[in-house]
Each structure stands twice: as structure tokens, then as C-alpha cells.
Amino acid sequence: MFLAAVTLGLVAGFRQSALYIFGPVVVYMLVRARVSLRTFALAFGLGVVSILVWLIPASLDQPGGFGVLYQQTLSMWRTAANSSSILAGAPADAAWTNVGKATATPIVALLLLAVVSVVLTAVALIAHRSSGSNVPMRRALLVIALTVLPSLLVTTIGYYGKPGYVLSYLPPAILFLCLPVLFMPKVLRAIAGVALAAVAVGWTYQFTSTQALLPQQYVNGDPWFTKTSFGTPFQDYTLDTIQVYDKDTRQYSALVDVVQPNDTLVYLGQEGVGRFRHLSYALPGLVHELIQDDPSIPCTLAFEGKLANCVTDPRSVKVAPGGRALIVANPPSEAMRALADAKKAVPIGLITGPTVFAVQPGTTVGPIPVVIDPNLGAEIRPTYT
User: Fold this and answer.
1) For the CA atoms of 46, 49, 55, 57, what is the dihedral angle to 10 degrees?
2) E strands of 110-178, at which residues?
3) How confident is the model at residue 130 (pLDDT cuts 50, 70, 90)?
4) Cα–Cα distance for residue pair 259/132, rounded to 1 Å
């Protein structure tokens, strides 16, 4: 149980939502073991220390300290909550939208397993009645419920941050669908194992050989989980999409050959969201800035992999003194082409193929001005390897 508390604290460093996803399970373990209050307090203390192990170094490494980390996390939460949570003033239909998004992905992903699980359940019930086996099913169901329900309730009634939240309850949902195997005698379990292996083969084929989880002919059908408004057909969850991002990352890794000290890499709009995320990880020594299409969504700066605040009213691209804004846009928009034709943006071809556009401070990219921010140069100097 102490190991579980420590593990929970460390995992929270990667995903803070792990505290409410797996916290109830750890509490259940302590209650089930009937530990003393002293042991309970010791486990809680170990969990807190495990959190401090990553929180203190992260705060020291972050320009602005813990306050920036806290405010940025709070800003991201409020942005998602204001648009998706009825508890935070979102429209009344936000809850239904959350339910649709939160359930569409697991239904599409687990549909094959669900069909097999129904058959296994029927076989297991017959076998259970004839054998009279006694399986602690209630305890298994309780543990699975403790791992599924908290995150599912937060995602639906609370707020829907992004599709990755589904991963918090997808694994325990798989365990739930596999529970019928516990009812079976050993002979039937071998057959059930073959059936589950066939499901795994089907999933492998779906991941490696298709461009989306749901075939195109079923998109926008009658069931709600086929609607594109809920994320269908889930193209981002296949090997094909991963390879596209990997190729894009390799091509733009050549930016280190053309970027100059105090330059800022700028990503615009929805197309830039994906690039901002994977290139800020792949090129942590550079300064990255994302400008969203929606002015209500705060943009995020990544300074050598760290966070900083960014104002959106007025929205602007900030560069350090002596620096340029390198617009990462492929293919370039009409606005970028017009700037290049007017000699206000200099196209720079990377050796790997893509083109970026260098824009000096004082230039306006569409409605967004490029301005000098002296604090950037004072806070951090990008390093290159």
C-alpha cells in the first residue's frame, strides 16, 4: 500500500488528473486492509513527498516559479471548464456534448471486444451455474468502478479537456469486458483466451493498417458515437497518423540550422496546434509560441520546454530584442504569400523540404502584430545543439 501511494504521487507528475483517477483505488486499498490511522497518515505523507519530488524541481526550473505553473494549469482548466462544464457556466447542452465525446471513443475502440464479451458472458453464466464456482465478482466490480467512475464523471459532468482524458477509464473498461473469464472453468478459460487473442489481433490490424478507428462508410450514421461532432472517425489513433507526425517532426528538426539567437518559432491556428506540441518537445532549446484562432483560448509559450503566460488581448507574437518571428506554416496561407510578395516576410527553405517565413518586429501577420518583448531576452537565452 505504501508503494501504491508513492506510485500515485510520482504518476501525478506526468498527469495531475491521476490523483482523482487512481486516488479512490488507493484509499480503497487502505480501507480494505483495515490499517491504523497512523499507517493511513504515513501512506498519505509518502504520497505528498512523492509529489514534492517532482513539483519542487519543476518550480525551481520554471521561470517565475511555482506561481507560473499554478496559474497556467488553472488557466487551462478554466478555459476547458468554461466551454464544457455546466458547473462553470457552460451552455446546458455542454453536458450532452461531453457525454458524447467521452463515450464515443471507448465505444468505437472497444466494440469488437464488447461483442466477444457478450458471448463470453453467456457462456460464463451457464458454466457458473453448473459448476457452482464462487468468484469474488463484487470486489472486482468495485475496484473497476473506482477506476472508471471518478474520471468518467469529471469528464462528463465536470469538463472535457481533450481526447486524452478517455485514456483514464479506457484500460479499466477493458478489464470490465474481460471479467466473464473469471466465471469460467479452466478448460473454457483457454478457449476464452483464444477469443481475446483474436480481439488483440483485430486491434493490431486496426491500428497498423487503417487510417481511422471507424470505417468511413459508418461515419455520421444513426448512433451518436458515429457523429463527427464527437470526434469520429478518430484518425489520430492510428499508426498512419503517428508516422505523419514523425515525418513532420524530422523535417522541421532542420530548424536548428537556420534559427538565430532570440528568434521565436510561431505556430498559427488549428494547423499549428499539433506542430507546436511535437516540435516543442523535439526542439526544447528553441523558443516556441502558439497563437490560437479562437481569441478566448490563451496561447502557450514553451521556453526550453518550460511554460509561461501569454496575453491574448491584444494578441501578438513576441520576440526578444534582435530576434525574428519564424512562422512555421506549411502550406503557407494566402496572408503569408502576400507578405512574402511584399518583401515583408523572407522565405527560408529547410534542407529537408519545408519552408518557414522570417518576419521582423513591426510587421503584422494577418491581424497579429510582431512585437519586441525585452523580458524574453532577459529571462532566457535559447541554446542550440
Assistant:
1) -130
2) none
3) low
4) 71
Cell of 121: 458472458
Eight-state DSSP code of residue 333: P
* Beta pairing class for 317-319 and 368-372: parallel
Query: Could you tell me the residue ranges of all domains in the chain?
Result: 2-88, 94-209, 247-379
Sheet of 317-319: strand order equals: 317-319, 368-372, 364-365
- Number of CB atoms found within 10 A of residue 190's CB: 10
Picking from 212, 371, 362, 185, the residue whose alpha carbon sits closest to that of residue 291 is 371
Position 56 confidence tier, pLDDT thresholds 50, 70, 90: very high
DSSP SS3 for 264: strand
Distance CA 219, CA 200 (A): 23
pLDDT: is 174 or 318 the higher one? 174
What's the length of the chain? 385
- Digit-coded pLDDT (tens) for 79-101: 777 777 777 777 777 778 888 88
Going by DSSP bridges, is the β-strand pair 264-268/325-328 parallel, antiparallel, or unpaired? Answer: parallel
CA 324 to chain centre: 30
C-alpha cell at 103: 463515450
For 6-52, how does the pLDDT look when each residue is reduced to its tens digit (9 = 90+)? 888 898 888 777 787 778 777 877 777 787 888 888 888 998 999 99
Q: Is the peptide bond before 233 cis (omega within 30 degrees of 0)?
A: yes
Q: Evaluate whether 371 touches 318 at the Cβ level (below 8 Å).
A: yes
pLDDT in tens, 140-199: 777 777 778 887 887 777 777 677 778 778 888 888 888 888 778 888 888 888 999 999
Helix, strand, or coil here: 237?
helix
**Adjacent-strand bridge partners of 303:** 287, 306
Supply φ then ψ for residue 379, to 5 degrees: -75, -40
Buried b (16+ CB within 10 A) or exposed e, 13-40: eeeebbbebbbbbbebbbeeeeeeeeeb
